[in-house]
Here is the input.
Amino acid sequence: MVTGRWLRIWHRRLGLTAAAFVLLLSVTGLLLNHASSLDLDNRKVENSWILNWYGVVGVDETARAFDVGGLSISWAGGWLFLDEKPLIGGTMELKGAVTLSQLIILATPREFLLFTDKGELVERFPAVEFGAEIQSIGSADDRLAVRAGEELFSSNSEVSSWSRFEAGSATISWSTSVPLTEAFVPAMDAHLRGEGLPLYRIVLDLHSGNFFGELGRWMMDAAAVLLLILSVSGIWIWWPRAH
Here is the structure.
């Protein structure tokens, strides 16, 4: 008698817990079953929180910007931008930007990129001469100055050869970062985030538990075990009454 009462109490408690999972699985299952008629593949989700959760990051606190001759050179989400125009992706953090010989020279920790003032890529080459990553760049007369590790270097006017910078030989005007131009952020953000995520993918991930990562998959496994326990305990409670 005591065992039966205890079983009924826990059966109800587990049932309330399982109800949340059943509701989630039922709603998402219905949506997936009618995905074509609901056009879930073509419906895009642009909510910032959801995009951030999926790692589709826009302009964030790591973004950097430099003013070069009235132009804004920015870096965000691995992309370089000239004003609001995307230049090139897959780059490391921007360390500086200067103009030299009518070209805009950008430096990341391990490479240089040369652009025209229209945003056309002229050349891209690794910075292998310094033995350390680039910390900052600047201009000294008609030469490019580089701080790499604890050392200072300067180039020739074509940026094709390097030598150690001699203290006092020239004054270096270092490239310093400035706040992002707010007017350019929406276009940059839209480029980085793209058109958003298909609603179908989000519903499918909710249904499978993948929306919550590894924890979500374990939660769905636990829900399946919970439903099995409820089925067995329900039969156990019903059986004596049925006979």
